[in-house]
Amino acid sequence: MSNSSIQIGTAVSQPGGTSYGSLRVLDLPTGGHEEIPVIIVQGTEPGPTVCVTANIHGGELTGIACIHQVLASDLATQLRGTLIALPTINPAGLQVMQRFPYYEPKDPNRVWPGYKNPKSNGVPPAIYQQVATQIFDAIVATEPDCLLDLHNASIDSVPFTIRDRVLFPPQPSAAQRKQADDLAEKLEWLARAFGLSIVNESPAAKYVELALHRSVAGSIVNTAGIPSLTLELGMGMAIDPPAVSAGTEGILNVLRAYEMIDGVVEPITQVPVIDLGFQVRRDDSARAPISGILQSVVQPGQPFAKGDLLGRVVDIYGRSLDGGEITATADGWLIGWRNGIAVYRGQPVASLAVRDDDPLTGPQPE
Ligand SMILES: [Zn+2]
């Protein structure tokens, strides 16, 4: 709760003003530098600090547009506290419209919090991993109350919020258990405030196996102990105005929930918000049983029950194939189909949200 000076790179906050600058993170082999653009909006009154990051996957553009929208109003004069916005934390992906930075074909959203991760000992750091270290340290040094990381998923997918699992040590003390429970509660509050459909990450063991604790939000939650959400704002590679509007409203909702701006949290109406009355988690169990051409039956946003036909695989002539049915393995709703219709046997074909009975906190696998 302060409006003391905040600095990231060359951006230095000014009470009642918006500051622009950049964080130099990488020297380029041919000269020049990779710079992460930074915007700091500081109110005249003290209050919480909210950090928003976007575009770690270079083709995921909606978050950039959302940040521009949030800043379009004269926010600094209305704000209590500080909003930090990093419109792209992967300029080298944005410039070439690719998920990965052009200098390295690795997912930049699986190497956080950077080189300090103990598993990196003795292993040379990935290039982006060194970039991530600097961004992570710069953000955590500002002691934000929360971080919102903006992404996109497949074409026609329903925007949703991913809620990370909160990990605790394998033999936790009562205090460590309570710390994890408290953080999970804060995540619940934050996700409700943002206002999109809430989908939990995979259960703890799979979450770590997939290195999702090393995503931006995962590392902010599980290394820094700060609430953070991943927001999947519909399709990437283009701007979808309802998704931009929903994402913008969600960010403003978080500022309202923290009482950083006036007003109450507004329901998201620009996109469907699905709540089946039970918790759901991300699931990729809808796989092509055989190779062929995918036909969808259930559409994005639609609920389904265990055993329902979600879609089928037919041949290139459109004829049905034996064993081509794709059925639901649990109750849930369909977030979106993967892009493309030519599928190979075993390939995940849809992003599902299915009933989740696992706890929101879990032990860090040894
Ligand atoms: Zn992404």
Give me the secondary-structure topology.
Layout: E1 7-8, E2 11-12, E3 17-27, E4 33-42, E5 45-54, H1 62-72, H2 75-78, E6 80-86, H3 91-94, H4 127-141, E7 146-153, E8 160-163, E9 166-168, H5 174-194, E10 197-200, H6 204-209, H7 216-222, E11 228-235, H8 241-257, E12 280-283, E13 292-296, E14 303-304, E15 309-314, E16 320-327, E17 332-337, E18 342-343, E19 350-355, E20 361-363
Describe the protein:
With 366 residues, the chain is α/β, with parallel strands linked by helices. The chain folds into two domains: 7-257, Aminopeptidase, CATH 3.40.630.10; 280-355, OB fold (Dihydrolipoamide Acetyltransferase, E2P) (Beta Barrel). The protein contains eight helices and 20 strands. The protein has an eight-stranded mixed β-sheet, with helices on both faces. Helix 1 (62-72) crosses helix 8 (241-257). The protein is globular, with a radius of gyration of 21 Å. It starts with 6 loop residues before the first strand and ends with a strand. The protein binds zinc ion. Zinc ion is lined by residues 57, 60, 151.
